User: What shape does this take?
Amino acid sequence: MLVKDWMNKNVLSLSADDTVQHAIKLQKKNFASILLVYDNGKLVGVLAKSDLKKAVVPELIPMGKTEAFNMVADIKVKQVMSVHPLTVTPEHTMDEAAEIILKNQISGVPVADAGGNVLGIVSRSDLLEFLGVVTGGDKIGFQLNFSLLDKPMYISEIIDIIRDYDGRIWNMTCHYHGVKEGYRHVSLKIYNITSENMKKVVERVKEKTSKLYIIDYVQGKRGEA
Assistant: This one.
C-alpha cells in the first residue's frame, strides 16, 4: 500500500512570516492537523497543533480564550514551527510512513517528489483510515487470534480449515511480540461464513493451538474459545 494512494492532497500552507494568530484561524477553520510553512517558495517547516498550543502557554491561559489569542498576535510562525521537516515520497509504503510518524512522535509528514515539490500530507488520521480498511474494519464476520509454531505449513493448515467451510480471509497479520521463541502470533479476519460453520472452524483450529481468542462481530461477542 503506497503513500500516493492514501495521502491527503488538500495541503494547507502559510508563510514563515505569518503570525501564529493567522495560523490558529487557518487551522480551526479547516480542522487541519498540520500546516506547511514556506519561505520564498521553499518548504522550511511544519506547524502542528502541538506547536500552536505551546505558543499560547496553555498551562497559564487556555487555548481559545481572547487573552491567549491576542497574546500571539505578534508571534511569527517561524518562531514556533518545527524546522527541517521530515518527508516521505509517494512511493513510500504506509507502513514506512507510520514508522516515521510514530518513531518521531509527530502529527504527520509531507509527501514530496524527487524535486522537493509537496504533493500531499500523511497524518495520523490517514494512518487510522488506512488501518481500518486493510484490517477489514467494514466487514462483518469473525476474528481469530492465536499463537502457533513459526512454520509455514501450520498457517496453511489453518487456512485450509477455513476454506473447508467456504470462509474467506479478508486480512491476516503476524507478529512476534510477546510470544515465546519459535512461535508467532496470528490474527485472521474471516467473513462469508455462517455462525454454525464458524463453530466447526473454531473446534478444529483449537486442535492446532493451545490458546484461541475469537471475536464474533455478528453477535457482538468475544472471548477465549
Notes: The longest helix spans residues 152-164.
